[in-house]
TrEMBL record:
GO terms classed as biological process: proteolysis
A family per Pfam: Peptidase_M17_N_1
Molecular functions per Gene Ontology: manganese ion binding; metalloaminopeptidase activity
Membership in a protein family: Belongs to the peptidase M17 family.
Annotated protein name in UniProt: Leucyl aminopeptidase
Keywords for the protein's UniProt record, in alphabetical order: Aminopeptidase, Hydrolase, Manganese, Protease
GO cellular-component term (any): cytoplasm
Domain Cytosol aminopeptidase per the UniProt entry, residue ranges: 308-315
PANTHER family: LEUCINE AMINOPEPTIDASE-RELATED, PEPTIDASE B
Length: 460
C-alpha cells in the first residue's frame, strides 16, 4: 500500500488540537451548544482523547483532539495517529492548535495509521484521510511513509513466502520503480566470486543463498547500505529452542529496512550514488551445515572460528561489508537484527548504533529527535577487541561469557569495513505491542533518522 494525503475539499472535517487544560479557553470562543457538548462529555484535552462534535445535520462537524502536555507527549510519538484510528471514515484537516514544529511528524503518523498487513487476511488501517497540513512537504512525507510500509510488509511476510529468492524479487521490484540496476550472485557462484561466508551460512537451506547488489544514481557522494537478509534463522546446528524461533521471519529486518530507506532516497531524488548490498540466506540444518569449531576464511582473508552457528548474521555481513569497502564509498551503513544483547540493553523501541565519527553521531541523534525515530549511540569499545580474538583464528564469531554481545558483534563487523567511514545499526525491526502509527509487527528503525541526517553528513 502507498499512503496518500487526501485532496483538499470544503467538506473536510476540521480537527482542533487542544492541550490539556486548554479546553475552557478554546470553548469560550465557540457557540453555546458546542460549549455544552464539551462539558457534557467531560473533554479535557488529555493526550490521545478525542471528541466528535456533531454539526447541525447530526454528522461530525468538528473533532477536538486532546494533545496533553509537553511532559506527557515526550513519553510517546505520533499522538494524532491514535486519534485517526478511532475516527469514522472521512476526510479531515488540521484546523488549529497543532504546534508548527509538530506538524510534519503528526502528519506522517496519520499517514502511517492507514497501514495494515492484509496479505493473508483482510485487514484495514485507519480510514480517516488527512489533508496535508500547511507548511509540510507532503511529497516527502508520502515517500517516507511508502518506504516504511515496504519495510513493514517485507518483515511481516513469513519465511515460506519471503525466502532469499523472494527478497531478491523485492529488490528487483524496487529497482524497476526507480530505474536502478540489480545484479545477483547465487549458489555456488558465491564461491567462484569469493563470498565464502555467505555461501557457508546459506548452503544447508533448500533455497540458495545469494548476494543482492542494487545500484542507483550517477553522481554525487557514494553511499553504501548493507542489510542483513537472514530470511529465517533456525540457528544452524546450534539449533534455537522453539520459543526463540517464533519471530525469526524478522531476521531479514536489516535488509527490509535498507530497502525501505533506499525507496525514500530514490523517491526523493537525493543527489548521491546509492549501492544496496543484501546477503540473503536461510540459516538451516542439513548434512552440509557449517559446524561449531569450524574455521572459515572470509572474503578479505581473515579467518573466523565458529563458536556458535547461531551467530551467523555477522558472518554474511562480513563478506558484504568487504565488498562494499572495496569501492571506498564516502559512507557505509549496515543495518541488522543482530543481537539479543542490544534488546537487553535498550529494549525494542530504541535503535542502537555504532560509529567512530562524532559528527555523524551528533547528526544522527539530532535528526532522530527531529523526526521521532529514536536512536542511541553505543561505543566501539576498543578494550573489548581482545574478546573477539580466539587465538586459533583471527576472529571469534561468538565470544564466550555473554558480556557486551552487541558491542563485540559491532567490533567484529568493523574489521571488515576497512578504512571506510562506517556506521552500524543493531535494530530489532519489530513492534511487540500496538502503538499509534505502529501496529504490532514489523517496523522500520533508524531509516528516517538516517534520511534526515544524510544531507548534512554527505554535504548534499
Amino acid at each position: 500500500m502507498t499512503p496518500q494525503f487526501a485532496e483538499p475539499t470544503e467538506q473536510a472535517i476540521p480537527v482542533h488540537v487542544i492541550e490539556e487544560g486548554g479546553q475552557d479557553a478554546w470553548a469560550g470562543q465557540q457557540p453555546d451548544h458546542v460549549q455544552a457538548w464539551i462539558r457534557a462529555n467531560g473533554f479535557t484535552g488529555s493526550l490521545g482523547r478525542h471528541l466528535l462534535v456533531p454539526g447541525d445535520d447530526g454528522t461530525p462537524g468538528m473533532v477536538l483532539a486532546g494533545y496533553g502536555t509537553a511532559a506527557s507527549r515526550v513519553r510517546g510519538r505520533f499522538h494524532l495517529a491514535g486519534i485517526a484510528s478511532a475516527l469514522p471514515e472521512g476526510t479531515y484537516r488540521l484546523a488549529s492548535g497543532l504546534p508548527p514544529e509538530d506538524a510534519g511528524n503528526e502528519a506522517l503518523g496519520w499517514l502511517l495509521s492507514a497501514y495494515a498487513f492484509s496479505r493473508y487476511r483482510a485487514q484495514d488501517g485507519a480510514k480517516a484521510r488527512l489533508v496535508a497540513p500547511d507548511g509540510v512537504d507532503a511529497a516527502r512525507l508520502m515517500a517516507i511513509a511508502a518506504g516504511e510500509c515496504l519495510t513493514r510488509d517485507l518483515i511481516n511476510t513469513p519465511a515460506n513466502d519471503m525466502g532469499p529468492d523472494a527478497l531478491e524479487r523485492a529488490a528487483h521490484d524496487l529497482a524497476g520503480d526507480f530505474d536502478a540496476t540489480v545484479s545477483v550472485t547465487a549458489g555456488d557462484d558465491l564461491l567462484a566470486q569469493n563470498f565464502p561466508l555467505i555461501h557457508t551460512v546459506g548452503r544447508a537451506a533448500a533455497r540458495a543463498p545469494r548476494l543482492i547488489d542494487m545500484r542507483w544514481g550517477k553522481s554525487g557522494p557514494a553511499l553504501t547500505l548493507v542489510g542483513k537478509g537472514v530470511c529465517f534463522d533456525a540457528g544452524g546446528l546450534n539449533l534455537k529452542p522453539g520459543a526463540s524461533m517464533a519471530l525469526m521471519k524478522k531476521d531479514m529486518g536489516g535488509a527490509a529496512t535498507v530497502l525501505g530507506l533506499a525507496h525514500m532516497i530514490m523517491a526523493l531524488g537525493l543527489p548521491l550514488r546509492l549501492r544496496v548490498l543484501i546477503p540473503a540466506v536461510e540459516n538451516s540444518v542439513a548434512g552440509n551445515s557449517f559446524r561449531p569449531g569450524d574455521i572459515l576464511t572470509a572474503r578479505n582473508g581473515k579467518t573466523v572460528e565458529i563458536n556458535n552457528t547461531d551467530a551467523e548474521g555477522r558472518l554474511v555481513l562480513a563478506d558484504a561489508l568487504t565488498l562494499g569497502a572495496e569501492e571506498s564509498p564516502d559512507l557505509m551503513i549496515s543495518m541488522a537484527t543482530l543481537t539479543g544483547a542490544a534488546r537487553v540493553a535498550v529494549g525494542p523501541d530504541l535503535a542502537p548504533f555504532y560509529t567512530d565519527d562524532d559528527a555523524m553521531a551528533q547528526a544522527l541523534s539530532q535528526a532522530a529527535a527531529q523526526v521521532a525515530d529514536p536512536v542511541w549511540r553505543m561505543p566501539f569499545w576498543e578494550p573489548y577487541e581482545k574478546m573477539i580474538e580466539p587465538g586459533i583464528a583471527d576472529l571469534d564469531n561468538a565470544p564466550s561469557g555473554g558480556f557486551a554481545g552487541s558491542i563485540t558483534a559491532a567490533l567484529f563487523l568493523r574489521r571488515f569495513a576497512a578504512d571506510t567511514p562506517y556506521t552500524h545499526f543493531d535494530i530489532y525491526g519489530w513492534n511487540p505491542a500496538p502503538a499509534p502509527a505502529r501496529p504490532k509487527g514489523g517496523v522500520g528503525q533508524g531509516a528516517r533518522a538516517l534520511l534526515q541526517a544524510l544531507p548534512g553528513v554527505l554535504g548534499l
